[in-house]
From TrEMBL:
Protein name (Swiss-Prot/TrEMBL): Uncharacterized protein
Pfam families: HATPase_c_4, HTH_24
InterPro entries: ArsR-like_HTH, RecG_C_sf, WH-like_DNA-bd_sf, WH_DNA-bd_sf
Gene Ontology biological process: regulation of DNA-templated transcription
Coiled coil: none
Chain spans, region Disordered: 196-232
PANTHER family the UniProt entry points to: GLPR-RELATED TRANSCRIPTIONAL REPRESSOR, SCHLAFEN ALBA-2 DOMAIN-CONTAINING PROTEIN
Domain of life where this protein originates: Bacteria
């Protein structure tokens, strides 16, 4: 799992699925993008964190009247997300053929893995979410390797680290849940409360701004038409090379958000430049008229 390029051959579904619902799973369940990361454990963790860092994490700046220094915060602190992702890999049961699933919604990020915490941990401690101290470690040898990579401590420090990093960022506490039969373990990390407020005030031209993210949407505020045109040119080039490419894969290649790619591809479809042939699975993109872009 640490050194094999494709441990999925020996342990099926050794992978991390990242599913993004831009409008929320309940509100718009059919609108989502999905990307899967496979490979050795270090590769999976690295690729997952690079994707989240490039497409999800944003820093916000709030200018406060009467103060020289602005208040800065992230929608999600990187260290908290990384700790939760590493723990999900460390403590999953690789004999259970279920992937780790990370769901990203406007309200938060949830990480689901199988099975749940060891039964030596009281359910009350899980719900309290302060520290989960197990008398038995799952995948202890894997944990030793992760410690060598400075990705974990292996001393029941995961949950306290997540809560501490969220507190430093001014975010609400993470929520930890498991079923009565301990079949699954769900970690929910809420988005910083200031992000919703920032979104509203950004639309009305207030003094709250996002330093990172606008450029990743494929459109900058200053030269939106030029940048949008460049992004569309790159999308056409990628589709030409691989008609079966997914939106998430294009986003990864261009280092912009999936939402930004979807916006530009929608414009290309409306202009009659590209069209989708077939369904979501097994379908492909077809370039019909480059001159209209």
């Amino acid at each position: 799992m640490m050194f094999c390029e494709d441990p999925n051959k020996f342990f099926p579904y050794t992978q991390i699925d990242v599913v993004t619902f831009p409008n929320g799973k309940r509100k718009d369940p059919n609108n989502f993008t999905e990307v899967t990361f496979k490979g050795s454990v270090p590769q999976m963790i690295k690729q997952t964190m690079e994707y989240i860092k490039s497409n999800v994490l944003k820093e916000y700046v709030r200018k406060i009247s009467g103060r020289q220094e602005a208040n800065r915060f992230w929608n999600y602190p990187y260290d908290a997300i990384e700790e939760a992702v590493v723990n999900s890999v460390y403590h999953r049961d690789f004999m259970q053929h279920e992937p780790i699933e990370i769901t990203i919604e406007p309200t938060g990020i949830s990480i689901l893995n199988c099975p749940g915490p060891d039964r030596s941990i009281p359910k009350e401690d899980i719900e309290k979410g302060d520290m989960l101290k197990s008398r038995r470690y799952r995948n202890r040898r894997l944990g030793d390797f992760l410690k060598e990579l400075d990705l974990t401590e292996g001393r029941s420090t995961g949950v306290p680290t997540i809560q501490a990093k969220l507190a430093e960022n001014g975010s609400s506490r993470a929520i930890f849940e498991t079923t009565d039969d301990r079949m699954t373990f769900l970690v929910t990390i809420p988005v910083h409360e200031g992000c919703n407020e920032s979104s509203e005030k950004l639309r009305s031209g207030s003094e709250i701004s996002s330093e990172r993210g606008s450029e990743r949407d494929g459109l900058g505020s200053e030269t939106s038409s030029e940048r949008g045109s460049e992004t569309r040119d790159l999308i056409i080039e990628i589709i030409t090379q691989n008609p079966r490419v997914t939106t998430a894969e294009i986003a990864m290649q261009l280092s912009i958000s999936s939402r930004g790619v979807e916006k530009q591809m929608r414009k290309l479809r409306e202009a009659g430049v590209i069209r989708r042939v077939g369904g979501r699975y097994g379908g492909y993109w077809e370039i019909t008229n480059k001159s209209n872009k």
